[in-house]
Design a protein that fits this description.
By secondary structure, this protein is α+β, with helices and mostly antiparallel strands. It has helices at about 10-15, 20-30, 85-90, 95-100, 120-130, 130-155, 160-170, 175, 180-185, 190-200, and strands at about 35, 40-45, 50-60, 60-65, 70-80, 90, 105-110, 115-120. It folds into 2 domains: about 10-155, Jelly Rolls (Sandwich), CATH 2.60.120; about 160-200.
């Protein structure tokens, strides 16, 4: 349980989709927790079950997976600022969270990361006892699906150069926020390949 004020960053995000009343905010705060992770902390390890959702309040990190060749691919970056989209705000393997299956992602912090934490039991309770929260979850699921489809489609169908151009068009701020190594990992290419593409661009 945390204070309503401590949940304000989360409520600010929710208000993009639903109107909140005081009862709903108090109910959510009663089922949330707060946590601070040190830099380079592993929040979730591949193979473990994801039974918590972390909403990023401050700090940064990433989720990543290892492909068939042993290469590490950054799936998403985590941060909360004016450029953040839904995919940046949550540290979770949503597939594992929903299904109870082992996670395919590892989630790590880059810096000290502060987050609000919701257990699976808390999320279930809120869905079953708050129509506003249930409505918000439905909209959140739609947004999450669109992101996952776009991310997978990009990696599967676009050339490295086209992926980079898409990044420049849609998320250029990532280039200032994260190192070339992690940007290359996000694009699914080697750092040397990213350097060549940037030189040619």
């Amino acid at each position: 349980m945390v204070s309503v004020d401590a949940c304000e960053p989360f409520f600010k995000y929710m208000r993009e989709y639903v109107n909140l009343d005081s009862d709903t905010m108090e109910l959510i705060a009663a089922h949330a927790g707060e946590v601070t992770f040190h830099p380079k902390h592993i929040i979730l390890r591949e193979g473990d079950k994801c039974d918590k959702v972390h909403f990023v309040v401050s700090g940064s990190g990433r989720s990543y997976y290892t492909d068939f060749s042993g290469k590490t691919i950054t799936w998403s970056f985590m941060f909360n600022n004016g450029d953040s989209a839904t995919r940046n705000l949550f540290a979770v393997d949503y597939r594992s969270f929903l299904s109870g299956l082992p996670s395919v992602l590892t989630i790590e912090t880059f810096s000290e990361l502060k987050a609000l934490i919701f257990s699976r039991a808390s999320v279930t309770y809120l869905i079953e006892n708050s129509l506003i929260y249930e409505r918000w979850m439905r909209k959140l699921n739609e947004v999450a699906y669109r992101y996952m489809f776009d991310r997978a489609f990009t990696l599967l169908t676009m050339s490295a150069k086209d992926r980079y151009q898409k990044l420049l068009k849609e998320e250029p701020y990532l280039l200032q926020m994260f190192s070339n190594y992690y940007i290359a990992s996000f694009l699914g290419i080697a750092p040397q390949s990213l350097s060549r593409i940037r030189t040619q661009h």
